[in-house]
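User: I'm putting together a teaching handout on how sequence relates to shape, and I'd like one worked example. Could you take ABC transporter ATP-binding protein from Streptomyces poriferorum, show the sequence you're using, and then write out its predicted structure as tokens right after it?

Assistant: Happy to. First the sequence, then the structure tokens directly below it.
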Amino acid sequence: MAEQGIVTRSLSREFKDKAGRVRAAVSGVDLTVEPGELVSVLGPNGAGKTTTVRLLTGLLTPTSGSADVGGHDVVRERRAASRACGFSLGGDLGLYPRLTALQNLTFFGLMYGLRGSHLRQRSVTVLEQMGLADRAGDTVGTFSRGMKQRLHLARALLHEPSVLILDEPSAGLDPQSAAAMRRLVGGLAEEGRSILLTTHDMREAEELSDRVVLMKDGAVHSEATPGRLRVAAAARLGHSVQIIWTAADESVPACDACPGLLESRQDRGTTRLRVRDGAEAAGWVLARFGDQVASVSVTPPSLEEVFLDMVDSR
């Protein structure tokens, strides 16, 4: 794999509406994805994720700022940047339903400059890698949504790029297919590729990401590892404390006097608290009711809660 991944510097893109007003879809985005690193970009609809992807893949030209993909400027060295990058936008677009899987890959391989036996071998290899070798001769119109998503990924890998840009690769998949897609994507990062992933699936982002970038209103709101984002959010949202009692009936202790209590819910033999300080609350529970406690656990806010907190913040 190449030593360069993705680097953007104050990347911006503006559009004019019908009335001539200028709107910034992406504003001053600084983003890096190192070799072997998988970075997920999360944000609500309209946050600028898709525009950022289109800027990185050469489908749009920046209004200002710059972006390098695989060490190549996406404007000045567009062809070299495109060859260093494989991208999958998913869905039904970008594949030819009347062609077979192998014919689709042959067509796109020719577009990337692959020829002859090398093209045939690469097509077979990526179909095997995606678990589609037995469907190579079937028309894509007969494929399920999950199979189409895997074929999109096969197409992205065909020319052996060092950088992958994946736009919601598991969107619309059933849980089993989504889990299989996560395994495939995780394995590609382990091969040393730089992977930028956009997703609305919080589980996917938390399971796969080295770093998560939260976007809002066209700009980067915050970025860190999933764990650090969750811990940082705990200062605003509090910790969750789950207490499982030895008694499984309604006679479990009340925790209304727990220090820093924000919320309390009880369900038979389990009490769930939202508190300011998880360690302090757990210590209080054990000190006061230790012989009645089967287990107590403390967790920071989930990544989904972090995301919703960002969306609701001003």
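A couple of points you could highlight for students: Residues 21 and 36 are 41 Å apart (CA to CA). The first strand starts at residue 6 and ends at 16.
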